[in-house]
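Milestone 3.1: sequence recovery, worked example.
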């Protein structure tokens, strides 16, 4: 390897990701802007329509959609101009959230291109919603998993469950391969 070349990026193992996620944790609020016009929040934030209006939120991604979880849905927001995208996902390590990565990333990207503001939430705004935001940053903004985690962590404590971290590692590896071939 020549001295001016950077070492090739490697997807980190989940144990290294957990260490990164747990280091230097500090209190964060119910909702935080983690990327320009992209917010992660909890269920109470998503259910507070006047707060959403004050924040200028135009789009909501509910990563805990459905009657067994946080049952807001498009009907909940019908008296607002908010556009809604629901992902019915339990916060358990065995649930495969990865089939929702691209469709959610597309929804967020479209909202941001329309100069909208997006809230991505789950129950506490730590695992499911954070996973979908990290996937968006990796897919659409071309950040590596480490860059995405560091970007979000500057503004909010997040801690995706180990199953979701593993899925993000897989996404990171496949995106790294795509970057090499393009």
């Amino acid at each position: 390897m020549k001295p001016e070349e950077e070492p090739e990026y490697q997807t980190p193992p989940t144990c290294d990701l957990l260490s990164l996620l747990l280091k230097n944790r500090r209190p964060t609020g119910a909702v935080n802007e983690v990327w320009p016009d992209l917010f992660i929040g909890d269920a109470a934030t998503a259910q507070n329509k006047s707060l959403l209006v004050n924040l200028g939120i135009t789009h909501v991604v509910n990563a805990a959609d459905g009657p067994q979880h946080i049952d807001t849905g498009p009907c909940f927001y019908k008296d607002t101009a908010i556009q809604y995208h629901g992902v019915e996902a339990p916060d358990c390590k065995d649930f495969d959230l990865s089939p929702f990565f691209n469709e959610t990333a597309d929804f967020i990207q479209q909202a941001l291109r329309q100069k909208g503001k997006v809230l991505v939430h789950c129950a506490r705004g730590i695992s499911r919603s954070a996973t979908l935001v990290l996937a968006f940053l990796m897919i659409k903004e071309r950040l590596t998993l480490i860059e995405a985690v560091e970007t979000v962590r500057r503004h909010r404590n997040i801690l995706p469950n180990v199953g979701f971290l593993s899925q993000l590692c897989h996404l990171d590896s496949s995106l790294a391969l795509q970057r090499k071939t393009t």
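The helical segments are 14-22, 43-46, 49-55, 73-76, 101-113, 128-139, 145-153, 162-181. The first strand starts at residue 31 and ends at 35.
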